[in-house]
Amino acid sequence: MIGPSGAVRVMVATKPVDFRKGMEGLAILVRESMRADPFSGAVYVFRAKRADRIKLVFWDGTGLCLFAKRLEDGIFRWPTIEDGVMRLSAAQLSALLEGLGWRLVHEARETPAPTQAGYCWQRCGEVNQERRTRRQTAANML
Fold this sequence. Notes:
Blueprint: E1 10-13, H1 23-32, E2 43-47, E3 53-59, E4 64-70, E5 85-88, H2 90-97, H3 119-141
Parallel strand pairs: 1-2
Antiparallel strand pairs: 1-5, 2-3, 3-4
């Protein structure tokens, strides 16, 4: 499945909803119970009482979209059932949709840019020189 970009906001309704609702009904739930705008571009995630079903509602810029999934075996790992909303990262949403333990997924730490240009090329040259020296030493021993 193609997942959302890392910049997308993902909001999870922690309380199960009536899964007979379609995209309009879920958009009303987003507005009323989550107090959010269903047309903001964020992804809103809902689950049924049975933990093997999940629905996502989001605005893609041209229309309201509804995504539904039912696991054939297993259940979706869900936050503690209580009233409220929880935020997930895009990586956590991808894990959730696969039925994996999304709590174990964390965003990658930002890696600082190198401070010295060409450092890796310099180091590669040193490694190659070390290899040449070892080969020459081994050849001289024969």
